[in-house]
Design brief:
globular; 11 helices; about 40% helix; single chain; about 15% strand; TIM Barrel; alpha/beta; two-stranded antiparallel sheet; eight-stranded parallel β-barrel
């Protein structure tokens, strides 16, 4: 029987890897890729597909219950590659933001997640001061570092594509994220390498090399055209767009990164597709396009 890729419906170029296939040893399902699955459904899906790690989202964890989620993960024998998300450090209520991030660090520690992904926040309302907003991020990260160290969780600063600079992340390049991360010990502040957000940057290869041991999380998905009307949902399955994943994987490997590789896709068509079919396509495309 011919296998098909979801949601494209085209014949698959590679057979679906079976559970236990060593090529899947570093593959992680970021929970947003199967957004409509509960934590329990995502954990069970990973077990069926032989995917050994999962990146969790705080809203899904809250819906399931923190202790229950930790138990599900432990019983399934999965790794938690990251917890999404902390951050949003640039707003007017600094204390509320710091408190929320301390709660996120507590959650990450209980879940066994060594990395808390930080989407740092956009410009404060009414502001055009990008430099000042980045300074606010650095100051807030400094306030969180002692708490992160106590919890054994690393703050993973994520640079987002410049189209999100105003509302989501005033860090737009991996270099900008590293400029802040390098002010703190490597074990407490790292960076996220996300192909969707950084593929366009001519300096990204050198910045991955610079990041070295600070690479906290490696996330992959493709840049597909036309962009969705809601650009937050503009990500595609690997191989459907324009990103050279082998370049990223080779640079990350050369920099010494041996951790999990998360597939994180925000895409309405992917979310509509059956979750098991999404995971099968994800595993095939990972083998075809990401492995080096």
């Amino acid at each position: 029987m011919t296998e098909y890729d979801i949601p494209s419906g085209r014949p698959a170029e590679t057979p679906t890897p079976s559970p236990g296939d060593p090529r899947l040893a570093r593959l992680s399902l970021n929970q947003m890729t199967t957004r409509n699955w509960t934590v329990a459904e995502a954990v069970a899906g990973c077990q069926r597909a032989g995917i050994p790690a999962i990146g969790l989202w705080r809203d899904h964890v809250a819906a399931a219950g923190l202790a229950k989620t930790a138990g599900l993960i432990a019983d399934a024998g999965l790794r938690v590659s990251s917890l999404c998300r902390g951050g949003f450090l640039t707003g007017a209520d600094r204390n509320a933001a710091l408190d929320d991030n301390r709660r996120a660090l507590d959650e990450a520690a209980e879940l066994g997640a060594g990395e808390l992904v930080m989407v740092v926040g956009g410009l404060p309302e009414g502001s055009r001061d990008l430099r000042g907003a980045r300074e606010r991020v650095a100051d807030a990260v400094g306030d969180l570092v002692p708490y992160a160290r106590e919890r054994g969780v690393r703050l993973a600063l994520e640079a987002l594509h410049p189209m999100y600079c105003a509302d989501r992340a005033v860090l737009s390049t991996l270099g900008q994220a590293l400029d802040i991360a390098e002010q703190f010990p490597v074990e407490t502040v790292g960076v996220v390498v996300d192909t969707f957000h950084t593929w366009w940057d001519p300096a990204v290869g050198d910045q991955i090399t610079r990041a070295a041991a600070r690479i906290s999380c490696f996330q992959v998905c493709d840049w597909v055209l036309p962009l969705a009307p809601d650009v937050l949902l503009a990500r595609g399955m690997m191989g459907d767009g324009h990103i050279h994943f082998g370049f990223f994987a080779q640079r990350a490997s050369a920099a010494g990164y041996t951790g999990d590789i998360e597939v994180e896709i925000f895409n309405a068509d992917v979310w509509k597709a059956p979750g098991d079919a999404v995971l099968a396509t994800m595993a095939r495309r990972y083998v075809e396009h990401v492995l080096v």
